[in-house]
């Protein structure tokens, strides 16, 4: 199944931005619908295994595969801007991702009894976790290709195809009585549909041969990205798992997860767009210089800050009402919990934007350090708070992302002063 075969190979910055924002909005709505249907059908306690599968899958996917996406996005765009061959970059990233996938499968099989006993409670859900993570590898690889060649419309279409497949398959299987296994199967199959549905367009061949690009060089760039993802995704997707490890009941895990996914819907929409900033930032820095780069970063932060403010304000006004509609009347979280989780998502978007700027400047280690400091602050807050599990996890994660955003801002200012 191939679509979009007749589209242009590249989109301009303005057209690409319009298409990608629209595509990510649609994908966010589809993700919202997938989660909402699952919560309504499975209930507060029954949805807990699914939310744990969702959290574990996307935490692992982001940690393992986003490094390849960012490496491809940065270096393919950079070489294309200079007319150099980007083929060595693609080959190098493919090789190390295959090795990483093999290592993950081995580790997953060894850890499967522990995962079944302590987390998922079912061997089939453990298998779904392992297979889903592997199936997302080519999907994230393709995202990097789209980013590097400025094929924003195709990137958006792939994510929409993935989200639509997940929703439609889950709805059909839930209606057929598959229970929690229906949405679980949908999570596994969706990335395959995304890859098969949209292929990269042909691009103008490079003008000259590019220098070699070793796996070691790819990992030197991707290593800090992987650390960023490990720390960031522990904060953003690790909450339900943390609630379980703190001996939270299925009802508490289900309630926390419903509140988390509701308040993070805008983040689902905008995170892929922020991820696409790296090749653009690299291109601006290489072609227009540091002053234009600074203006690009400030404009991006202004837009993301406005979005974050609207997220928090909207949650304060409408969060409790929205949660009842989104998940069902039995899901009743306090306004403080909902606002804290919305603030966590807003600070994450700010940190992720600053990450792209630091990566483009070659200071990925500072980006990772910012997330590590935020994770440490979250752990300290978690240890100090004496409230209920849902409140304790929510407040500590909000503090962690705030500290991470503040540190990212400081590191960016320091990096710009040192570089100039």
| Proportion in helices | over 70%
Tally of contiguous helical segments: 15
For the record, the count of structural domains works out to: 1
Order of helices and strands: HHHHHHHHHHHHHHH
Strand content: under 5%
Key traits:
420 residues, 15 helices, 0% strand
How would you sum up this structure, described in words?
This protein is an all-alpha fold and about 425 residues long. It has one domain (about 15-420). The protein is built from 15 helices and no strands. It has helices at about 15-45, 50-80, 85-120, 125-150, 150-175, 180-195, 215-235, 240-245, 250-265, 265-275, 275-290, 290-325, 335-360, 365-385, 390-420.
Provide a quick synopsis of the model.
This protein has 420 residues and is mostly helical. The chain has helices at 13-46, 48-81, 87-120, 123-148, 152-175, 181-197, 215-236, 239-245, 250-263, 265-275, 277-288, 290-327, 335-360, 364-384, 389-419. The protein is globular.
Give the helix/strand layout:
Layout: H1 13-46, H2 48-81, H3 87-120, H4 123-148, H5 152-175, H6 181-197, H7 215-236, H8 239-245, H9 250-263, H10 265-275, H11 277-288, H12 290-327, H13 335-360, H14 364-384, H15 389-419
Helix pairs in contact: 1-5, 1-9, 1-10, 2-3, 2-4, 2-7, 2-9, 2-11, 3-4, 4-5, 4-6, 5-6, 7-13, 7-14, 8-9, 9-12, 10-13, 11-12, 11-13, 12-13, 13-14, 13-15, 14-15
